[in-house]
Each structure stands twice: as structure tokens, then as C-alpha cells.
Known about the structure:
Layout: H1 2-31, E1 40-47, E2 55-62, E3 69-75, E4 80-83, E5 88-97, E6 101-106, E7 109-110, E8 117-122, E9 127-132, E10 141-149, E11 152-163, H2 180-184
Amino acid sequence: LAQFQNLQKKKVEQTQRKALVEELAEKQLNRMKPSKNVAPRTSYTSYGTSDDDVFYEPTQRVAPQRHPTAPTLGRPLKDTDVKEGQPIQLTCQVQGFPKAELLWFKNNIPLPLSARHKTSYDVGSGTITLRVNDSRPEDSGVYTVLAKNPQGHVQTSAHVEVKESSGIDETSYVQPDAFKYIEKQPAAGPRSTKPRRESDTSNLQQKPA
């Protein structure tokens, strides 16, 4: 009987201790005020050697805080030359937090986007791209992209030259392989130019009389 009473007392103590730990953990969490830039996560670590001797202690996990930074240039725009009608593609790389706002210019004038002008911004890699389809000579000029956020700004420029088409149709009307058959024919040997003499009858057969 005494052993049973001791066992019951032990279980009551464990229950009270577990309730006390949970109450303390709840009070601690209520006192903590999460920062705007920190995402707290709470888990519980168990202690004990058996199912009857287990209590829990709260563990606080705090995600690393990312500090705002001004945009920095990882890879600048590069000068490029294209032929009229070919697409223009300019690419650079910018890093910074928070995400930068982009502004494109041509010859220091804001670039109006149209059906021919397409821009993209991959925030993960920081890759910024401008593509101009069906290029024209008037698309030549200096292109600039400005990346800015509340911490600062950075810019990069490149010169684009669109070479005007000559207007001459250079299409070949004869297929390049049209003469392959003739080129593969073996060259004929030189013909003999020696005149045949009438007295040369070595190749003639005489008929019987």
C-alpha cells in the first residue's frame, strides 16, 4: 500500500511540475515583444529518462535579421553593336535590400516602354535585363539603368550602336551545293591530237580474196 501511495504522489508531483513549467513558459513568451524584422519561433525541449519523468522547457529560435543595404553593382552593362532588325539585349546585376526600384534612360531621357521594349528583374540573382525587339537605327544611343532603394542608389550605362541595313538583297539565287556534282566528276584524260595516217593499217584486218 505504501508503494502505491508513493507512486501516486510521484505522478501528482510530475503533473504539478509540468503545469508550472508550461505556465512559466507562457508568461515568458507573453513578455517578449517580437521585433519588426525578427520572426520568432518557439519549440519545446523535453527532459527525462522515462515517460513518467518528463518535463518541457521552451526554446526560443530567432531568425537572423537582414539589415537594409544600398544597391551595389555586381556586373555592369556592356556596350553592344547589332544589325538593324536584330534584338538588343542589355544585362547587369545589382544587389541590395530591400528590393531596388529601377529606372531606365536613353540619352539621359526616361525610356518609354512599348511593345518592343521589355524589362525584367530577377530579385533572387539581382539580374536586370532590357530587351528591344526589331531594332532600328534610331535605337542607337547611351542606355542607363538606375537602381535605388531607401538606403541609396547605383547606376550603370552602355552604348548601343544599331548598324543600318544597306538595302541590297544579298540573297544567293544559286544554292551553294548546286555544283557539287560537277566538282566530283573525275577529270577526263587528254585526247590525242596526233593525225591518223592513211597508211597506218595496223589495226585493220585483211579480207581474204
